[in-house]
Hints:
This protein has helices at 12-21, 37-48, 92-101, 116-124, 135-139, and strands at 24-28, 51-55, 63-64, 67-68, 82-85, 106-109, 128-130. It is an alpha/beta fold and 152 residues long.
Amino acid sequence: MKYMNHSEPYSDDYLKGILTSVKTIAMVGASPDKTKFSYGVLRVLNETGYDMIPVNPRSDITEIRGLKVYPNLKSIDRPVDMVEVFRKPEDLYEIAKEAIEINAKVLWGQIGVINDEAARLAEDAGLKVVMNRCPKIELFRPFWKPRLDLKI
C-alpha cells in the first residue's frame, strides 16, 4: 500500500473533501477551559454546523458548551465521521486504534500532533489521515465556501 507523505502539504481538494463530507467530529482532548486552543476549535466547529462530541476521561467534566462529554471514543452512542486529536503525539497510536474500532472515516491530528506509525495504522484500515493541521484554520482557507445560512 502506498502511504501519504504527511510531511508534504495536503492538497486543497483532500482537505476540502474531508471537511465537506464529515458531519460528526469526536474531539479527543476537548477542554472546558476557555483559554485552551481546543475550546476555541470546538466552539468554531460547532457553530459552523458540525456535530461535535467532546472526549475527555476526567469524571468531573460532564459537559462542554452544553455538549455531553464522553470518557473515550468507545462510549460514544452514535456514529463518528472524524476523530480530531488534541493530545501528545505519542498518544495518537492508541487513539488511531480506537478510531478504527468505532469505524471513523478520518483521523485528524491537531497542530503538533504527528505520529507516522499511527497514520500508517489508520491508512491500512482505510481511514483518511491529516496531521499537524487545524480544521478551524482550514475552514477559513480560500477553497472553503462559508455557510452563511447559520446563525451566530
